[in-house]
Amino acid sequence: MTEAQILLLSAAAVGFLHTVFGPDHYVVFTAMGKARGWSLAKTLRITFFCGVGHVAGSLALGVLGLLLGAELASMVAIDGLRGGLAGWALLAFGLMYFAWGLRQAGRAHTHSHPHVHADVVHEHRHDHHNEHTHVHDLDKQGSLTPWAIFIIFVLGPCEALIPLFMYPAARQSGALVLWVALVFSVVTLATMLAAVAITRIGLDKLKLPTAGRWEHAVAGASVAACGIAITLIGL
Questions:
Q1: Is 9 inside any structural domain?
Q2: Sign of dihedral through CA atoms 89, 92, 95, 96?
Q3: HSE-CB for 177 with a 13 A CA cutoff
């Protein structure tokens, strides 16, 4: 096996592993898609565009570093800073969505009012959820949720890509740099899409008890957990 083939296999393996062991690459999309009622096709479409932004951000940084002649240590440090920002942004987004989900759950709580008409007493049960725009209607009008996730994923680095970039660049092989970028990007995107499809379809088939009015709070908590995993555990 040639040196180039080993490098490309490494790029594919790193792209796959960094996606699988980074739950934010798929849990975010599965949780938000389920809570907001996105179809599988829409969920995968949003995953794809966010994945492109995710990979493109690190590719742009890598290319800029190569053009400026930056050293590996400085490039890794910058990518680490981006990772910290993305992790905190994901945590903040998850907590805000969790708080919003709790508010939605409160509005959806069913309660009753007694009414007395002459000698007749009856109860009227209702909630206040329909007094406000439903979340699925917000998606139809143009929700900001996909854009928020997209921006966070553009900030999110592909840390392992930088060292893969630097080796062929040091050998002054521009073609190999491009092939490494292509293989890493394709495998990362394919793994993200596959992971989201598997977890979403599996979630639908498991027939778990529905979260009902708590589904948005659960989704927000899941996203926040991914943010914690990045910022505190370093996944």
A1: no
A2: negative
A3: 19
Taking the C-alpha atoms of residue 6 and residue 21, their distance in angstroms, rounded to an integer, is 22
Global pTM value: 0.75
Identify whether 203 is part of a domain. Answer: yes
- How far apart (Å, rounded) are the C-alpha atoms in residues 119 and 115? 11
Q: Which segments of the chain are extended strands (E)?
A: 111-117, 120-126
Instruction: Please tell me the total count of domains within the chain.
Output: 1
Token representation of residue 59: 């590719």
| Matching residue, tokens 């979260």 | 211
Judge whether 48 lies within some domain.
yes
Q: How many helices (H) and strands (E) does the chain have?
A: 9, 2
Yes or no: say if 32 and 149 are a contact pair by the CB < 8 Å rule.
Answer: yes
Range of the domain at 61: 27-108+151-233
Q: How far apart are CA 55 and CA 125, in angstroms?
A: 50
DSSP letter, residue 210: P
Beta-carbon count within 10 A of 66 CB: 18
By three-state DSSP, how is residue 198 classified? helix
Is the residue at 96 inside a domain? yes
- Tokens matching residue 223: 């996203």
Residue 144: which of 223, 36, 226 has the closest Cα?
36
48's tokens: 């794809």
> How is residue 23 written in tokens?
């739950």
pLDDT one-digit tens code per residue, 144-201: 778 888 888 887 777 677 777 777 766 667 788 888 889 999 999 999 999 999 999 9
